[in-house]
């Protein structure tokens, strides 16, 4: 067992528009926190892994090619690998607990798998 301290807790990005911190990594999954300040820009690209977001603080709108939805504390969002997605209209500092399966970046082209 491992308690992942600070996972999903708001932390102001250090000199960047947003901040991703990976707090646990195994071959099968990774867990981290993604924070976007109110009014901030989400500049992420689609990922090569499936992803689950759990909103722990803040409010925003998530948009994908299929539409959009308002999200706030307690919202759980599944984004399949390769799907364009972005958080927009961040009206309150947004903190997201993020789970990737398999681990973040592990399916990226050119990356060796063990």
Automatic annotation (TrEMBL):
Top-level taxon in the UniProt lineage: Bacteria
Annotated Cupin type-2 domain residues: 34-100
Annotated protein name in UniProt: Cupin type-2 domain-containing protein
Organism of provenance: Micromonospora lupini str. Lupac 08
């Amino acid at each position: 067992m491992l308690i992942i301290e600070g996972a999903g807790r708001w932390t102001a990005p250090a000199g960047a528009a947003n901040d991703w911190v990976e707090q646990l990594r195994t071959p099968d999954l990774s867990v981290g926190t993604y924070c976007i300040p109110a009014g901030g820009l989400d500049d992420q690209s689609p990922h090569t892994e499936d992803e689950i977001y759990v909103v722990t603080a803040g409010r925003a709108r998530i948009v994908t090619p299929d539409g959009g939805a308002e999200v706030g504390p307690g919202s759980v969002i599944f984004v399949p690998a390769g799907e364009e997605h972005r958080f927009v209209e961040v009206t309150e500092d947004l903190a997201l607990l993020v789970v990737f399966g398999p681990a973040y970046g592990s399916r990226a082209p050119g990356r060796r798998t063990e």
